[in-house]
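User: Teach me something about this protein's shape.
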Amino acid sequence: MVSSGFMQLVLVCWCAPALSRPHAGGCDNKAVTFQDLERQVVSLFEKAGSLPLRLSKDGGNIEVRTDFDGPNMVSLAEAKMIGRPPSAFRGFLENFNDAFAQNDPMVQEIRHLEHDQSREGIKAFLQFPAPVSNRIMVHWKYLQLHRRPDEHMLILSEEGNQGLLDKYLSAEEKKKYVLARTFLCAYWVSPVSDAQGQVIGSNIKYAYSGDVGGSIPARIQRWIGPKNSLDSLKVLIGFGENCSKK
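Assistant: First, the predicted structure itself:
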């Protein structure tokens, strides 16, 4: 549960096709580095403050800003948690495949495909509520621990994933699932410090930019989009809280 005593949560969902699709032909095999994607994540959050407020709950503790461009959606979420250092969330990022699948009921399975230098190919199976069809995603995962001291970032992206699709997306899966595209998805954990420079908590940011795939009515998009972003953030928050109790 969200506790105003420990957390200030801001959820932002907005439309920015130029940022969500920075490279034409995102599914080709062009080499993409963590630094390329990192710059996109930072740019997204730099512009978040200019977006109009769409929804406020819990006395302003939770705010939602949302917009879509057809099936394309960009979501940004941020939570400040006092009393939970970045080390409480690091295990989630390090063991993302298992941790996310075990803690998010929407995720049926996350399957390892292959390693390529500093990135890992993965396949995610997602279960959506009716009448929305289940989705499948195939993308690269990048993990950068200690981007700065006590600061960690995990990024998922479909850029350069055509080889993965050719090798690992079966004909049966194409019939059974709708292929959802992840232009960019990131978890970013950084320390919160007091006036003396002591770490007293964590700032958690979540970003999603993608095409949900298929034909989804606008009213369902407006409900599912923000809800999924909030749920994804809560999964990481819950993991950190459970680790702190152990």
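Now, about its shape. The helical segments are 17-20, 34-46, 87-94, 96-103, 162-168, 171-176, 218-245. The CA atoms of residues 11 and 77 lie 4 Å apart. If you'd like, I can walk through any region in more detail.
User: That's plenty for now, thanks!
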